[in-house]
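User: Here's a chain of 491 residues. Predict its fold as tokens.
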Amino acid sequence: MAISSIKSMILQSVLYATTNQQPQLCPITATWQCSPTPFMLIAAPDNFNPDVETPSPQTVPEPNAPTVTPLPLKPKPTLPKPTVTPEKLVTPTPTTSLLRLTQEADQIAAKRAWKYFERNWNPQTGLVNSVDNLPWTTWWDQGSALLGIHAAYQLGLLPQDVFQKRMNTLLQTLEKLPLPVTGLPNKAYNTNTAEMRHLNDTPDPKGTSGWSVLDMARFLLGLHVMRSHYPEYSDRINHIVARWNLSKLVKDGWLNGAVPRAGRLLEVQEGRLGYEQYAAHSLKLWNIQATNALSNPPVKTVQVDGITLQVDQRNLKNSGATNYLTNDPYLLWGLEMGWNDVVKPQVQNLLKVQLQRFKRTGILTAVNEDSLDRPPYFLYYSVYSNGQSWQAVNTSGKVYPQLRFVSTKAAFSWFALMPDDPYMKRLRDFAQNLSDKNRGYFSGRYENSKLGINASVDINTNAIVLESLLYQARGRHPLVLEARSQGRQQK
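Assistant: Prediction complete.
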């Protein structure tokens, strides 16, 4: 298929998902469920990344499902003013010791994942492409890029002078980054020029695409890791973030995003159980408090294969956004911040139900949100969503049971977090060689053996592989904390 035909097909798909699709009006009276008028869907946490350069295999994700509901009509809590300094800035003790990956398989995996960065880092801006060989990105993806570069440096994959050059180039770009009138970074940018783009990769010179609080939260977490591990960059990072109107990221205690509608931006609640709490905890690193997102999410319990799990009550039918229960936010939460006692039972049951499915069916199971190498180009594969178990759905709720897959980044992350579990070891061994020696790791492999490898290649898979390896090398210490007896600091 010609590149122009592929691009046309993909853009039509994303434009439908981001501009035309409207949920029905909802008859339920709960304020988080209903809105007086239909609201827009947004692409988050991983926005649309059309890869028109490498049509075969295609590495093009569809826009992620929206995570939007009307803002609850509750009294506005008194919130502390967002600041650009954390409540307690972690300053590591410098050391010259180098973190080591002692297993050959880990060393090989790190080098393979780093290939993606070598191909897709842009020397003009310091930004990394969201998808292989396409100069386009979102801030969720740049959060992944920061954490991947940090992991690679800590693991000795790039020399200090190269690391410094990449950081300086990125910070120079961020210091001059064009911003919309909202005072927050636009949803998408060109990685070669740092110019604002729409989600469909067309020019957006006025920055009319709005913002995603989930994307911004992940990027802010990445910036926090950089300022706390490398204090020489902290002042520059703080000054960069001080330009941004962070107070708009939370409204009435809920995560707050904005979507374009009828020539203006509509502010909307963003986030579902899992992603919502991961983002809210990330924002706390900058003293931004989303109290309702952390304490009052509307949840219920369901039984999947006899195992009790918490799910978000806000589903596709009553809110226009699917309540995906998948691995991604919980694994990132564990690798980067560490699980708290509240979330641990959910994590344990999430793992238990996937292991049980494997034992019941013989199908290796590691669900996730991931890009695909074929239409619809992006799916959420969830333990539970929209009232059904083991669903692989696109942003409009269409089910693709034939495209269920094993996720590379989920396999690496689970093993890093639970290395003594035999099932985690089996997942990791399965994913070890799902890579292209010149491009990095593929997104995974389809459960249907006839379909083979899911050959999509993107920043999130490769960055999270590196994150998981750094987590292991740090003695299973989360990335936002500093193990003072370890770490490789700039001099």
